[in-house]
Structure formats: C-alpha cells, structure tokens
Write a structure and sequence with these properties.
Elements: H1 15-36, H2 41-68, H3 74-96, H4 100-130
Helix pairs in contact: 1-2, 1-4, 2-3, 3-4
Bound molecules: fe (ii) ion (2 copies).
One fe (ii) ion binds at residues 62, 77, 81, 117, 121-122.
C-alpha cells in the first residue's frame, strides 16, 4: 500500500519544488513498505535519514525562495516545517522502542500533514513566487 498517491492537485508548478515534494512522497511510501515488510533496522534507518535530509534541504530551499519573493507570513510557514521534522523523529523513536504500530501511526500523520501542507501552505505561499 502507498500512503501518498501523487495527484496533479499536489503540484505547485515550480519544477524544483514539485520534484522535491515527489521525492519526499516516494520516500514516505518506501518507509511504509519497509514497515509493512520485514526490512531490517539498518535499512529502515537509512530511509528515515533520507527523509529527514531531503526534507531539511527542501525546507531550506523553499524558505529561501519565499524570502527572496517577500512572501507574507514566512515565519508561520517556517514554524509549520518543524512539525515534519518532529514527526520523523517520533517515527524513529517509536521504532527504537520496537513499537511498529506507533511508528505506522506517526508515519500516517506525517504523510497526511505533508500533502495538506503542500495543498494549503505551499500553494498559497508560492503564488507570490510565480507572479
Ligand atoms: Fe512548505
Ligand atoms: Fe514544500
């Protein structure tokens, strides 16, 4: 099962942003498959690190772009990004405690947050970049 099915409605029409969003979505799906199956801890940890690093890099580039275009309420948007990082850490903590069902619950929250954030905040903020 994939947690995130990419849909045209998720696009912001800024290519590098959309590519990064799609990459993070596919890593989230990869982690879901790893939790469903019996991937060992090393592999699972590797995917989690990839999600975290990709997201940190994406948020930094997105925030930089928004700053250049004087997007309003940038601080609110930046604060929202911390939720993603915190939730990835919560998945990691649950796995360390061997609580797979909590890890999957946190991953579901992460995937829902990610798509909602793109459709609400990113699309709203990035309108100022296109114009
Ligand atoms: Fe964002
Ligand atoms: Fe984004």
């Amino acid at each position: 099962m994939s947690l995130i099915h990419w849909m045209p409605e998720n696009n912001t029409n800024i290519d590098f942003v959309d590519n990064q969003h799609r990459n993070i979505a596919s890593l989230i799906n990869e982690l879901e498959r790893a939790l469903e199956g019996s991937l060992n801890t090393v592999e699972t940890q590797r995917i989690i690190k990839k999600i975290l690093n990709s997201a940190i890099s994406h948020f930094a580039q997105e925030e930089n772009l928004m700053e250049q275009h004087d997007v309003p309420d940038l601080q609110t948007h930046e604060n929202e990004h911390y939720f993603f990082e915190d939730t990835v850490c919560a998945v990691e903590d649950a796995l360390k405690a061997n609580d797979i069902s909590l890890a999957r619950e946190k991953l579901l929250i992460l995937s829902e947050w990610f798509v909602d954030h793109i459709r609400e905040m990113d699309q709203e903020s990035l309108q100022y970049v296109k114009n």
